[in-house]
Each structure stands twice: as structure tokens, then as C-alpha cells.
């Protein structure tokens, strides 16, 4: 565990042995609408559950009598060495989970020697993140706004703040239907609707932090407070096409990665348009209801683009074994989102560190058990995938997937 500002995590966080236990602690510490924003998905949340449960259909095949006395997890990521094949993925408004927010995430990533991606919808500015973590390999996630002058200004701010990689998210032409947020009346930036005020009052520590720290809002600007669907549809441009990649390349001379790819045909087209990498992703199951799990889509995309292109994957990754499976199925790296956010909500910066430590330790252990002394030694022969992965049920008709907030 890396020692960070604020010291060791609180005992209740330190005692968590896996990400699922951190999730339980986050659920107890956050008001129900805020936890729903973190934990929920689109519609009936089948896609979110499928992201996790698809890993149940992946079987690892170990090789024996290999020297794994030293396991080196370091990899190259678009021209810079990282200490492990992990990226802390972009999430908007993380200060709603804990006031340390994106700055804490950045410091943890820098301490662990891996990249972190800052969201366009972040509650901490690019400049503040650069100041908080000057040694971080900084990636900036971009949504293309209807207002291209505003988009150009955001890109320039990220460039001046030393962000190295631009991650263009392309799977939000319109907002997905996130029913947990709708039922809770959650607005963005967050407010406390009268009908949920009692629920917020049950979490006085969270309320105190919100009231005594800098107001939570979009650090790069945005639309006035409104519900998620209205705000997303007002800001983002549904007319974005492959032609916009040329415009973007004229503004950014570093690596460009496109996030939100599920189709091999799209992956090939993006390679032809000169992008430097892809993230196979369904937005954590928060956009298209019923979307294929990224880990299911990954092998075909890797075959389509060949071995040279940088390909990462996200969605449902909670353990080091999941990361190893992603490597065997063709990924160069894995992004985690909810996994570290559960730690942030449970214990601030130290909680993020603990969550990442759990995943990293699991990866080193899994590589050793597979007979691989490095990610480069993980091969397709070390994985088997069921022909028909188990598809989670949405439950009986009329069952709400968020009832009790106990889905895992």
C-alpha cells in the first residue's frame, strides 16, 4: 500500500478484503440518490450486471513450472511506461462522493505509477489536477459539445495543463435513461430534492462535508442545473461523425484514444482514421440498455485491428483476475471506474489507494498462478470463453433492479 496524504485508511476501509466490501461501505456512507448515481445503470440495468457477470464465463488456464519468483506488471502505454496495465477511468463529479474527488484520484494514480483520465464533466479543473499530481500521466476525456468554441477552449486548457492523451468518448450521442436518478429526482450539479431530504439527513457526515467544502459543480463549465437527460442532450452533439476526428487532430498533437467502441467494423474505421487507441466500453452499462459486455466484444475487436493498436477495455472489472482475463482476451490495459469510486466514497484518498491496492495485488497473484512473469507473457492460450455466456435475468416483471440497492 502506498502511503498518501491523510495516512492509512480508516480501519473499516482497511478491513475490506475486496471491492465488493468497499461497495458495501460506500453504500452505507452515501445518501441513497448519490449511491444510485455511482452504482446504477441504464434502464433495467441488465447491461451493468452483464458487464460483471460476463466474467463468470471466462476460464483461465494456468501454465506450470514457470519462473514467477519476480512478477513485473509494468507495461508501455502509448509511449510512456506504467507500473501496471491499469488506468483510473474518467468519471464526472467525483467530489459528490467525497470532497477530495478527482485530486485524490490523481494523487493515488501518480503514487501507483499509472495514468488517470479526467472527465470533461469533472468537479475539479485540469489545472487543479495538474497541481495536485504533477508527476501523473494525465489523460483527458473529452465529450464533443455542440458549442465547438467551448470544446476547443477545453482542449486547450487540458493541453496547457500538461495532459498527454486525449480520450474522446463517442457512445453518448444522446443520454441514456438512468431510472435510479430519475426516481431520486437527482439533478446535476447535485441538489437535495425535498422528497429525499430525509434520506440525506441520515448521512450527516456527507452533508457536513458538502456544506463546508467548495460547492460541487462542473469545473470546465456546462449547462445550468437540470436533470441528467436534459443537461446531456443540451450539451453534447449527436451529429458527431468520423469527420470530426480530422478537426480534433488539428487541435491535439498527442495520442488520441476513442472510448465507447463495441463494433469491430467501427474499430477498423477508427484505425483507418488514424486514432492511436481504443477503449472497448459500453459506458459502464449506463447508456445503451442491453448492450454487449465489453469483455465479450473485446476478442473480435482485437482480431479486427491487429496486434499493434493500443486497445483497452472497461466494464465490470473488480479484481486482478478480471484484469488478467482482459489481457488474455486481447487488451493492453484495463480501465476501472466504480471499483476505485467505492473506495473514494468509503474512505477518501486512502480508500482509493486501498481499492487500487486490492486490484494490483490480485493481478500480481493471478499472473504468478497463471505462470506469467509479466503481462507480455499472458497469451490467448491461457483463457477459455464459454460459447454462451450466462445472461443475467432482469428479475420478475415489475421488479425494480435498484430495490434495496443490493445488486452486485
Automatic annotation (TrEMBL):
Domain (FMN hydroxy acid dehydrogenase): residue spans on this chain: 11-388
Tree of life domain: Bacteria
Cofactor(s) for this UniProt protein: FMN
Positions annotated as active site in the UniProt record: 283
Positions of FMN binding: 90-92, 119, 141, 169, 259, 281, 314-318, 337-338
Keywords of this entry: Flavoprotein, FMN, Oxidoreductase
Binding locations of glyoxylate: 37, 143, 178, 283, 286
A UniProt-annotated Pfam family: FMN_dh
CDD domains: alpha_hydroxyacid_oxid_FMN
InterPro entries tied to this protein: Aldolase_TIM (IPR013785), Alpha-hydoxy_acid_DH_FMN (IPR012133), FMN-dep_DH (IPR000262), FMN_HAD (IPR037396), FMN_hydac_DH_AS (IPR008259)
One Gene Ontology term of the molecular function aspect: FMN binding
Family: Belongs to the FMN-dependent alpha-hydroxy acid dehydrogenase family.
Name of the protein in its database record: Alpha-hydroxy-acid oxidizing protein
Source organism (scientific name): Microbacterium lushaniae
Amino acid at each position: 500500500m502506498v502511503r498518501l496524504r491523510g495516512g492509512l485508511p480508516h480501519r473499516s476501509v482497511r478491513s475490506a478484503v475486496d471491492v465488493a466490501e468497499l461497495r458495501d461501505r460506500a453504500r452505507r456512507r452515501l445518501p441513497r440518490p448519490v449511491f444510485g448515481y455511482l452504482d446504477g445503470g441504464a434502464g433495467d440495468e441488465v447491461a451493468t450486471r452483464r458487464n460483471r457477470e460476463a466474467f463468470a464465463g471466462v476460464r483461465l488456464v494456468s501454465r506450470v513450472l514457470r519462473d514467477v519468483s519476480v512478477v513485473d506488471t509494468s507495461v508501455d502505454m502509448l509511449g510512456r511506461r506504467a507500473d501496471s496495465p491499469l488506468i483510473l477511468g474518467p468519471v464526472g463529479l467525483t467530489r459528490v462522493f467525497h470532497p477530495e474527488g478527482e485530486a485524490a484520484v490523481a494523487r493515488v494514480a501518480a503514487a501507483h505509477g499509472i495514468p488517470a483520465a479526467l472527465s470533461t464533466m469533472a468537479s475539479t479543473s485540469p489545472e487543479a489536477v495538474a497541481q495536485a499530481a504533477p508527476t501523473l500521466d494525465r489523460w483527458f476525456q473529452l465529450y464533443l459539445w455542440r458549442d465547438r468554441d467551448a470544446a476547443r477552449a477545453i482542449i486547450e486548457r487540458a493541453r496547457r495543463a500538461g495532459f498527454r492523451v486525449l480520450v474522446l468518448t463517442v457512445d453518448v450521442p444522446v443520454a441514456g435513461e438512468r431510472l435510479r436518478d430519475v426516481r431520486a429526482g437527482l439533478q446535476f450539479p447535485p441538489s437535495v430534492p425535498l422528497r429525499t431530504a430525509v434520506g440525506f439527513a441520515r448521512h450527516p457526515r456527507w452533508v457536513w462535508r458538502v456544506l463546508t467544502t467548495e460547492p460541487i459543480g462542473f469545473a470546465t463549465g456546462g449547462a445550468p442545473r437540470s436533470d441528467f437527460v436534459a443537461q446531456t442532450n443540451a450539451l453534447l452533439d449527436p451529429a458527431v461523425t468520423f469527420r470530426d476526428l480530422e478537426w480534433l487532430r488539428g487541435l491535439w498533437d498527442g495520442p488520441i484514444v476513442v472510448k465507447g467502441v463495441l463494433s469491430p467494423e467501427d474499430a477498423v474505421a477508427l484505425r483507418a482514421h488514424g486514432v492511436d487507441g481504443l477503449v472497448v466500453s459500453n459506458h459502464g452499462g449506463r447508456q445503451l440498455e442491453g448492450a454487449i459486455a465489453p469483455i465479450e466484444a473485446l476478442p473480435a475487436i482485437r482480431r479486427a485491428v491487429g496486434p499493434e493498436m493500443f486497445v483497452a477495455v472497461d466494464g465490470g472489472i473488480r479484481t486482478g483476475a478480471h484484469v488478467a482475463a482482459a489481457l488474455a482476451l486481447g487488451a493492453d490495459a484495463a480501465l476501472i471506474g466504480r471499483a476505485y469510486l467505492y473506495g473514494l466514497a468509503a474512505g477518501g484518498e486512502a480508500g482509493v489507494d486501498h481499492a487500487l491496492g486490492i486490484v494490483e495485488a490480485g493481478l500480481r497473484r493471478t499472473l504468478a498462478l497463471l505462470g506469467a512473469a509479466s503481462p507480455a507473457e499472458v497469451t490467448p492460450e491461457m483463457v477459455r470463453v464459454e460459447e454462451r455466456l450466462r445472461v443475467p435475468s432482469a428479475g420478475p416483471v415489475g421488479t425494480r433492479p435498484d430495490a434495496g440497492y443490493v445488486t452486485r
